[in-house]
Hints:
Layout: H1 18-44, H2 52-76, E1 82-83, E2 86-87, H3 92-130, H4 136-169, H5 176-210, H6 222-244, H7 258-281
Antiparallel strand pairs: 1-2
Helix pairs in contact: 1-2, 1-3, 2-3, 2-6, 3-4, 3-6, 3-7, 4-5, 4-7, 5-7, 6-7
Amino acid sequence: MNPQLDGSCVSIDLPTSIVELVGGYGFLSNLLCGLALGAVAFLLGKKEAAPPHTIALLASGVLILAADSFLFASVHSRKPFVIDDVIAPGGEYVCYLVWTLAMPGFGMLMVGATVLVVSIGWMIVQYAITNDIESPIFAALGGVFSFFIVLTTTLSLVNVSNQYLVFMMYPDRPSGLAVAAVWIFGLVMAAIACSMIVLRTAGLYRYRKAQADWGAVADSRFRALALAAISISAYGFLAITVDALIFLFRADDSVRAPGVMWSAIVLCLGLPWVIYLPICYALPGPVFRAGRRPPVR
């Protein structure tokens, strides 16, 4: 059934325009990539030694946001043929293809935004150490920022995944089991990642409130950070792979196959969760118990 979409892939029952969404998110990717690149240049240009973990995170953020911008630009160039303000018969499959190809881009954008905010949190802690700021609240601000960015980006990815299912299965509605699976996975993803952030941040706050020195609570967990940076970079290069293999995707009913749809959701919602775990684990703070010094690495 042709859903009577216009040139922006919008109809009365499907009000979200994937064409406009991809264009706007592509601009946002460019903006965040510029901010991350400027931050890396600033840290590398400082006379004193810059924190290597922050530079590593920001550098991986630059890669994933640049690749994300490339993917969004490629996807945005694909538009259905329109006759009298309505897409031609069969043109709706172009909209399905655009939605599917954009799904990894949504996930990469949220990962890039998370990396940028978490890196700012690390900068706050490093500034507190360098200037010997005693306020435990100031030292914990980075964890607070990280908590909110992980929570909001996770909910955003859940929302995008559900909108994708609604669009792809129209005029039928997604099964309650499919919607519930997306929500449950998203909530579990947010709960695990945010609980790690809370434990780190609360432990850092209590430690700084009770101790005069920083001890090892702000030491980098380089193994986790290295894993996060490598995972982020690999996820970013996925955009190049998707665009390079575009000839494998045809604008026909095959793009609505369940395997294709759930693969797109995994790329959008599942892979970011794998990346969030080492990022949250590497946040400054005691090892899950306030006042306990982490092992030497």
